[in-house]
Sequence to fold (228 residues):
Amino acid sequence: MIAPACSVDRISAALLANGLVLRGGFNFAPGEASPTGSSGAPARAVLLVGQAGAAPWPHFLRWREKQPRSIANPLDTWSREVIGAVEAFGARAVSPSDKPYLPFQQWAMRAEGLRPSPLGILMHPRYGLWHAYRGALLFEDTLPVRAAEAAPHLCDTCVEKPCLKSCPVYAYSAQGFAYQVCLAHVRGTDGEPCRSGGCLDRNACPYGTTYRYPPEVQAFHMAAFAEL
Fold:
């Protein structure tokens, strides 16, 4: 069992020490299907864990210096370790890469009242596109969390939509994301700007720019995407 208010504060402090933050949460409705919690009983509440800007990066780098360079998916591994340590508070930690996949984006929309941008990334009214969800904590007790109100969706007021005009191969469009087209471009000769500085469409978004990931962080993510 978890002592809700006190434990949520302590969980938040433990995550913040590694640059991660609680990104909201909600209680599952009575009778609603949910994953299992720490003991195998159905979860009754979920807290989303993520980042705003690149705050976790220095913590991740210090951890990575002590790991074998051959370690696969190092950021996922680090995130699992940090978030998994919170299981001592009575939670079950889960990751977006766990299989079978859990509905992280739907949970995030429900927890924070966000909607997707044209790039598929949820648009945050403060962080823009420069945020991420690294995991979630499942509890078998309800938590004192308030239902999120719909956040202002900045994409609705963005007339120019530069996020759909900056990619040289138009990987994003009204038809969705052309994954193979993007991948081929990033891996090719003309993809150097994307490899070194990140997605041009994402960087063209005018919102949340003070939280934009530094080039080295974007290059890390792009290398992981392209398996370089």
User: Anything to note?
Assistant: The radius of gyration is 18 Å.
